[in-house]
Design brief:
The protein has helices at residues 11-23, 63-73, 87-92, 94-115, 153-172, 194-203, 223-236, 253-267, 297-303, 311-324, 326-332, 336-345; strands spanning 2-6, 28-33, 53-57, 77-80, 123-129, 176-181, 183-185, 208-211, 217-222, 242-245, 250-252, 279-282. With 347 residues, the chain is of the alpha/beta class. The chain has a domain at 2-188 and 220-248 and 293-310: Rossmann fold (3-Layer(aba) Sandwich), CATH 3.40.50.720. The strands form 3 sheets. Strands 3-2-1-4-5-6-10 form a 7-stranded parallel β-sheet, sandwiched between helices. The chain has a 3-stranded mixed β-sheet with strand order 7-9-11. A two-stranded parallel ribbon has the order 8-12. Helix 5 (153-172) links the parallel strand 5 and strand 6. The protein is globular. The chain binds nicotinamide-adenine-dinucleotide and thymidine-5'-diphosphate. The site of thymidine-5'-diphosphate (TYD) has 12 residues, from helix 6 and strand 8.
Length: 347
């Protein structure tokens, strides 16, 4: 079986590619990635020589190239992760999100529609986010039946691509599954999202910009648990279904940041309180969603998936990874990153 993973050089995609390449030697895994600022082949250096793995540098918005690759490699299934993924960037530059997340997804769907004949063996699996559901109040959880109500340009672009995936299933019979996952954290996370940005800033003794009052809630899942959930859905998921993925692990940003500061002080042999003193409350993100929390009982009951690590274990693994991989951090924070950082956080 030829499986295409898009965005496989990114944070979650690299863990998905590694899982599929190492667990299924009988499959051939193709990774299409444009290697944007968020894509990094260093994330896959341990498996780059595997017999059942091929990297194809391509942009999913390039229709001609995508059609050529589908014709050449005859992908049986597609696990689609390639996307612009950072909310703050979507506020600055929404068009880039429309291009990759909506038009790029359309190109893949059109290629599948025109090439796949025997529907039974095919699958278009879209990796999406809980942010499509909008924001929760103090109570309740997002279920698979929650209405879409995206608030950020990022969330709107993912909601739109989810709708197109579903529409291609209903209209043209493209077999699809969608999963909507909560916030991921773990190794190889580009240091622009909350946890890796703050780990990097603590190491460098730079300010920790907490948006608004810090009383925003996110539901955090270790990235390898997400990769395992994706593997489970790829093999056991039912065509046409949607699955929510999350860890029942809600944290207010400020509580999470304070925990991170304490662990980092201990790991770096700094006096407790050193990292916390770096916290700066800054102007809030416009349209900032108050709370995300996922009800993942469907995937648990129907497919038997559940997270394998607690948040405390996952956070330790993550921090240890960053402290052991300072060259990776240095590489991804050189060049354009400094300009971005200056624009976003120091203006
Ligand atoms: P990421 O930004 O780390 O990686 C995205 C990858 O896509 C990069 O390797 C990048 O080079 C590639 N890419 C971007 N534009 C491309 C294009 N036009 N053509 C080909 N490749 C392109 O993102 P991530 O955090 O790993 O997220 C992966 C997917 O999972 C996204 O679809 C995202 O919406 C979804 N998701 C993320 C989270 C999260 O917490 N990070 C949670 C739920 C769902
Ligand atoms: P982020 O990691 O960007 O993920 P998302 O916006 O997709 O949930 O942000 C997580 C939370 O942390 C969110 O409430 C915004 C907040 N945040 C900060 O307070 N400061 C920061 O520098 C960043 C990047 C995020």
């Amino acid at each position: 079986m030829n499986i295409l993973v898009t965005g496989g050089a990114g944070f979650i995609g690299s863990h998905v590619v590694r899982k599929l390449v190492t667990s299924y030697p009988e499959y051939h895994i193709y990774n299409i990635d444009a290697l944007t600022y968020a894509g990094n082949l260093e994330n896959l250096s341990d498996i780059e020589g595997a017999q059942n793995y091929t990297f194809l540098k391509a942009d999913i918005t390039d229709i001609a190239t995508i059609n050529r690759l589908f014709t050449t490699y005859k992908f049986d299934k597609v696990v689609h992760l390639a996307a612009e993924s950072h909310v703050d960037r979507s506020i600055e530059e929404p068009l880039a999100f429309i291009k990759t997340n909506i038009l790029g997804t359309m190109n893949l769907l059109n290629a599948c529609k025109s090439i796949w004949q025997d529907d039974k063996k095919h699958l278009f699996y879209h990796i999406s986010t809980d942010e499509v559901y909008g924001s929760l109040g103090n109570d309740g959880l997002f279920t698979e039946n929650t209405s879409y109500s995206p608030n950020s340009p990022y969330a709107a672009s993912k909601a739109s691509s989810d709708h197109f995936v579903r529409a291609y299933g209903e209209t043209y019979g493209v077999p699809y599954i969608i999963s909507n996952c909560s916030n991921n954290y773990g190794p190889n996370h580009f240091p622009e999202k909350l946890i890796p940005l703050f780990i990097n800033n603590i190491i460098e003794k730079k300010p920790l910009p907490v948006y608004g009052d810090g009383n925003y809630t996110r539901d955090w899942l270790y990235v390898i648990d997400h990769a395992y959930a994706i593997d489970t859905i790829l093999h056991k998921g039912v065509i046409g279904e949607t699955y929510n993925i999350g860890g029942f692990n809600e944290w207010k940003n400020i509580d999470l940041v304070k925990l991170l500061c304490t662990i980092m002080d201990d790991k770096l042999s700094r006096k407790r309180g050193t990292s916390e003193s770096l916290i700066e409350y800054v102007k809030d993100r416009p349209g900032h969603d108050k709370r995300y929390a996922i009800d993942s009982s469907k995937i648990n009951k129907e497919l038997g998936w559940k997270p394998s690590v607690t948040f405390e274990e996952g956070l330790m693994l993550t921090i240890d990874w960053y402290l052991a991989n300072t060259t990776w951090l240095k590489n991804v924070t050189s060049g354009d990153y400094q300009a971005y950082y200056t624009k976003m956080y120091q203006s």
